[in-house]
Amino acid sequence: MKELKDYSGPYIPNLKYEDFSKEVLVKLLKAYSRELNVLGSYWAEEVRKRLGEDAEKECLLSTWKRIGKYETGWAMEAAHIKGNDVETYVKVTQLMGSFAQGYYKYDFDLKNKNHAILTVHYCPAFNAIEKAGDTARLNWICTVLEHEAMREYVRPVNPAIRVKCLRAGPRKSQDEVHCRWEFTLEN
To answer: pTM for the whole thing?
Structure first.
């Protein structure tokens, strides 16, 4: 079968991802990442409505800490990434569905194999919460939830990798980045 550039034609029994062009697969990956992130937000909102803010925070923290080892491991396995240094973690992070390129805008400054700085220039959740004016929620998500989750995401690569928040939470000006994190591993 010729690679499909879209699926506007008739129904294809036994359709597989492999039947699509690279361009379609990239668009699907971005759509799945958006779905993953929006689903998590909707789920948290429903928990908050039914059980309150404390239950929402507990559930979010538990869920993101729990999924970290799996998402890291799945990306490593899919791309056959080996290693146990910060550079390995940077490579894995570039491939994670919950942090998809294009949905988030970020870059890594890889100083060396054991030191990197992640700068997030655009985070959809940050923008939505900032726009709603909920600074307490933004502060908790950006400083507590993200920090705890990132510590779990690095563990499958190397539990000795340290995660340090350099900037997170509400911004003083629109020119500030959404967040900045440092990853280090001592020899």
So the answer is: 0.91
